[in-house]
Task: structure prediction
Amino acid sequence: RIKPESADGLCNRGNAYLAKGKTKKALEDFTSAIKLTPQDPDLYYNRAIVYLSRGKNTKAMEDMREAARLGHIQAREYLNRSGNML
Result:
């Protein structure tokens, strides 16, 4: 029922893929969703989680910083705990 071509649909499907361990597909969906709505901090945070699960720590930190810059509270907390403050 959710349109996968919408940012919300892509985000929801990305989360479903992530829950199933299909990180490549999740990464693709979050990246596509970011292209549609680049000001949504949740999308960067979600993509950062995928990057972390794939061992792409530098890319994860870049997305965490962007999510925090856009106002995502958990991203700010993560960066503070990891010593990677903005």
Remarks:
- The helical segments are 7-19, 23-36, 41-53, 57-69, 73-82.
- The longest helix spans residues 23-36.
